[in-house]
């Protein structure tokens, strides 16, 4: 191989394929991040501090985003996705805005909070899921008597990688945003009790767990996000997929083996399953439930779906 030719090509902004073939065409995906686990008991004191020390009037959102250091200081939980917890004190209003990134909230302790999506009222009882699809106006308010906390997930990293992020702030003064009817939204909200009922009658999947997929018209809830609720009552078979997942422990305790890591988790812990990493879960007691946010819909649309089971 002629080193002087390679150097001359590089000076002319031309790269010889033969010199870097493997870098251009990796033989398989290789996640940048190791799987990571955040314990609710470690997050909760920060939620408490943020609620006391950060006035909602001073910030767009009072959210604590789970960031894996593998992304070099970028605010990313696992590739394409961010997971976070948002805290609102009674009376707090998180101003309306909209953006091209897709987001969801899953209520952990948010009874009394309401998310308004495109003028529709979405209650946030424990286990409720609220969608904020791309470019839908959304704001949050705590109308209850106690602090509310919910789990958020969104795909800003994917949208920013495509450099397709647009963001429009609303105005703090516009009181009309909050004046919506009492009618709930079936378009943007999935009640927790209905999801649990469907999970209870879901068939056992190939991995040995019962899985409920949140759907709209038979497909993923949004073009870029695909959401699941999983009931585990025995050790699941290990799977690996081209897509990425963030898991929120909804109930129970258990452990997961993800790549070469082993996580012992409890209620409201969060952990990641980076793409193309083997993952298996088992409950410690009789059963456990996981809410799983994925970017599977992106890979499905791009015909890049690969899912393997051991
Ligand atoms: Fe938002």
Written account of the structure:
The structure is a single chain. The protein is an alpha+beta fold and 310 residues long. The protein is globular. 38% of the residues are buried. It is 15% helix and 36% strand. The strands form six sheets. Strands 1-21-18-23-16-13 form a six-stranded antiparallel beta sheet. It has a six-stranded antiparallel beta sheet with strand order 2-3-10-5-8-12. Strands 7-6-9-4-11 form a five-stranded antiparallel beta sheet, with no helix packed on it. The protein has helices at 3-11, 21-24, 40-53, 156-161, 192-200, 296-301, and strands at 37-38, 63-66, 82-88, 93-99, 103-109, 113-117, 120-123, 129-132, 138-142, 148-154, 167-169, 189-190, 210-213, 215-216, 219-220, 226-232, 239-241, 245-251, 254-258, 261-265, 270-273, 279-283, 288-294, 307-309. The protein folds into two domains: 37-190, Jelly Rolls (Sandwich), CATH 2.60.120.10; 194-309, Jelly Rolls (Sandwich). Bound molecules: fe (ii) ion. Residues 97, 99, 103, 132, 138 line the site of fe (ii) ion (FE2).
